[in-house]
Amino acid sequence: MGKYANKAMEALATDLAAGLVRLRKGYVDNAEALLQILDTSTAYPYEFVVFRLTGFRGQRGGPPSESLPGSTLRRDLLALMLDICDSCDIRTGEYSEPTYNVEQMARKFRISTKTVQRWRRMGLPARRLVFPDEKRRLAFLETSLQSFVAGRERLVRRSMRFSQLTPAERGDIIRRARRMARFTSCCLSDVARRLARRTGRAVETIRYTIRNHDARHPDQAVFPYLLSPLDDQEKTAIYNSFIRGTSVALLAQQFHRTRSSIYRIVNEMRARQLLQRPITYIYNPQFDLPGAEEAILDVGVQPAGDRAGADKGHDAGAASHAEAPNDLPAYLRALYDVPLLAPSEEFDLFRRYNYLKCRADKLRSRIDLNSVRTSALKQIEAYLVQANVLKNRIVSANLRLVVSIAKKHLGGPQTLFELISDGNVSLLRAVEKFDYSRGNRFSTYASWAIMRNYARSVPKERYQLDRFATGNEEVLDIAAGLRVYDPNEVNLGELRESIDAVLARLTPMERMILTDHYGLADQGQAKTLEQLGQRLGVSKERVRQIEIQAMKKLRSILNPQEVDLTP
Question: Which has the closest alpha carbon to 74: 48, 39, 50?
Fold first, then answer.
């Protein structure tokens, strides 16, 4: 289907294109008849459009109460005509009047094929018909042309002048253009505009004449540098200059290109950067549901200050402010002035954050470097900017967490500032990897991510956490489900007790396999599945099955609705 401005019209086009074949030609003809009486300043009820196309009164493919603006309805009807034609074989012989393809129409009015396309954008109805040579082409009926041309005599005369140049006129344009290019610093656009004013011709006619001459006679080209494409180094130089504020007009003059070429190069480089930029996010099936954008982006939560009263009873664990330790520098004490996020607010921020990046990534996948659309680039960049704003809110609300953990790792070669800087990197990575849909608190997940990082950078911490090393993210996931972390109090013993409380819910064999395989026992040494099988007198595969079963049970236990840490 084509691109429709009104979803109801797109649904109607799909419905009609799947209807009885013998009725489809009538739908196309009725759509053109409706175009003839359409007023772009008026809105039309959906039922009226359905009745004019099908003769059917009532709902079909769209809501009966919907009102369709005439300006967008015109475009949708033109698209509908082509879509229905594509759904069946309508032949030119089925019409009792002359039909013209694009080339025949151009010869009839002595205009270029580009002008034909411009007329189509202005509302000239087109069909896609099967011609006698069995090829399907765009076709225009004689009555359609007469109706379009009526009242547009001035436009037709101007369009005919657009391409009606004699060989002498073309030669004169080339001579004058060559003289201007040689003795001035004018680019092709400047030359075309000046010659258009002096000759009374359209700017596009002059530009096309010069470019056509250069393509046919490269050894005598007026602008020979336009024949060779710019390399990547030149494109990068143009883009960097544009970013620094150099005007497009100056760049066009400096690189001997048209302004439109400069804009195309800038957009191409913007698109390349977006394609090279990594966009990672946690996908959620909710993102692909109908109305997801409105449900996720339009319904935001209130700022923390405004909702403090509303969340006081519901989210008591998220205090808006906390007293900063007296032993911190002033610039770190200011971190405690940023309110913590309530659970509902945290959930909303992470959902919007990941959805925006998901939308940006999907739009980016449609980028075509040969035809870059500025609107698409702006939309992708807008999504990423909005996502970055949300990420900054999440990070700001959790910076005190990094300070709390970093303070407990002092005493080694690293200063407090270095530890905080290292912890902030872990915090940023945790924001990228946190799955909000599991119902866990981000502070728990982030604290484990920060401590695991310190285990690699601080020798003392590495020794302590080696007892809990798993070789993968399983224990981190388990701890994330506990929801018992206090950002003002980090205690490895308490975390170990919490893990033991959860493991106590498993059978003795399941508990033994997990603790021994992942090194959670007092000895802190991980055993292989084969070693565990020999100890239990079962196969290695049976041990793996029991482990998988135990992990599933743990995830079920750690469901936010069912967590109970009392053994």
Answer: 39
User: What's residue 115's pLDDT?
Assistant: 82
Burial-class residue 555 by CB neighbours within 10 Å (0-12, 13-18, 19+).
middle
Instruction: Classify residue 530: in a domain, yes or no.
Output: no
Q: pTM value?
A: 0.51
Secondary structure class of 45 (helix, strand, coil): strand
- Supply the range of the domain harboring residue 241: 231-276
In a domain, 73, yes or no: yes
77 pLDDT band, cuts 50/70/90, is very high
Q: Using alpha carbons only, what angle is made at residue 299 by residues 298 and 302, rounded to the nearest 5 degrees?
A: 120
Q: Give me the phi and psi of 130, to 5 degrees please.
A: -90, 120
Select from 218, 253, 276 the last residue of a domain: 276
In this structure, the number of other CB atoms found within 10 A of the CB of residue 329 comes to: 9
Structure tokens of 378?
């702006």
Q: Measured between alpha carbons, how far is residue 382 from residues 27, 47, 157, 346, 376 in Å?
A: 41, 37, 44, 22, 10
Per residue in 133-152, pLDDT (tens digit) is: 888 899 999 999 988 888 77
Return the CATH number at 243. 1.10.10
Say if 101 falls within a structural domain: no
The last residue of a domain, from among 46, 65, 88: 88
pLDDT at 317: 43
State the total domains in the chain.
2
What token pair was written down for 31?
């759509």
